[in-house]
């Protein structure tokens, strides 16, 4: 079994936003040369999340709005006593920061409307993305 990895960096521009990183992930899988195996995509940050969903402007706004309903910025959190970003930590903790998908015949197996979306909740920041492909 081969193991291949790549680390990407990107910057967010707003405090709350959604970035589509699908092309970068799919390019990396092609670059790996692995035809059949497992893809792991990890966003190693505690205040941003990674989802698979549709990149449609209405849905993006719905995601941001519902996340704000779930954990509003000024929610009286204990963590805000030391760092004013508890809302972002909570959102990331409940959504998650990694995704694992199969790679079959050189293609990532995902649904038609499943794009890799980074949900920024504590920007603007420079973020890292780790892509690991294992297989043959």
How much of the polypeptide forms β-strand, as a percent range? 35-45%
Number of domains: 1
CATH topology: Jelly Rolls
> What spatial order of strands do you see in the largest sheet?
1-8-3-5-6
The CATH class designation is: Mainly Beta
Give the overall shape: elongated
- Beta strand count: 8
Distance between the termini: 6 Å
- Uncertain segments are none
The helix/strand order is EEHEEHHEEEE
Q: At the fourth CATH level, what is the homologous superfamily?
A: YjbQ-like
Number of helices: 3
Based on secondary structure, the structural category is alpha+beta
| Overall pLDDT level | 98
Question: Would you give an account of this structure?
Answer:
The chain has 136 residues and is of the alpha+beta class. The protein has a single domain (2-135), classed as Jelly Rolls, CATH 2.60.120. 26% of the residues lie in helices and 38% in strands. It has helices spanning 22-32, 57-70, 86-95, and strands spanning 2-11, 17-20, 37-42, 48-53, 98-104, 107-108, 115-120, 126-135. The strands form 2 sheets. The protein has a 5-stranded antiparallel β-sheet with strand order 1-8-3-5-6, covered by helices on one side. The chain has a 3-stranded antiparallel β-sheet with strand order 2-7-4. Strand 5 and strand 6 form a beta hairpin. The chain is elongated.
Write the layout of secondary structure elements.
Layout: E1 2-11, E2 17-20, H1 22-32, E3 37-42, E4 48-53, H2 57-70, H3 86-95, E5 98-104, E6 107-108, E7 115-120, E8 126-135
List keywords for this structure.
Jelly Rolls; 3 helices; single chain; 136 residues; three-stranded antiparallel β-sheet; 26% helix; 8 strands; alpha+beta; five-stranded antiparallel β-sheet
């Amino acid at each position: 079994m081969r193991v291949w990895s790549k680390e990407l960096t990107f910057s967010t521009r707003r405090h709350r936003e959604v970035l589509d990183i699908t092309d970068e992930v799919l390019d990396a899988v092609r670059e790996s040369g692995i035809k059949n195996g497992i893809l792991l995509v990890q966003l190693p940050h505690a205040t941003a999340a990674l989802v698979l969903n549709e990149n449609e402007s209405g849905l993006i706004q719905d995601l941001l709005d519902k996340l704000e309903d779930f954990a509003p910025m000024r929610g009286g959190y204990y963590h805000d006593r030391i760092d004013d970003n508890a809302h972002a930590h909570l959102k990331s903790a409940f959504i998650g920061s990694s995704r694992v998908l199969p790679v079959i015949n050189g293609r990532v197996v995902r649904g038609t409307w499943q794009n890799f979306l980074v949900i920024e909740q504590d920007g603007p920041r420079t973020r890292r993305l780790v892509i690991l492909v294992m297989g043959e």
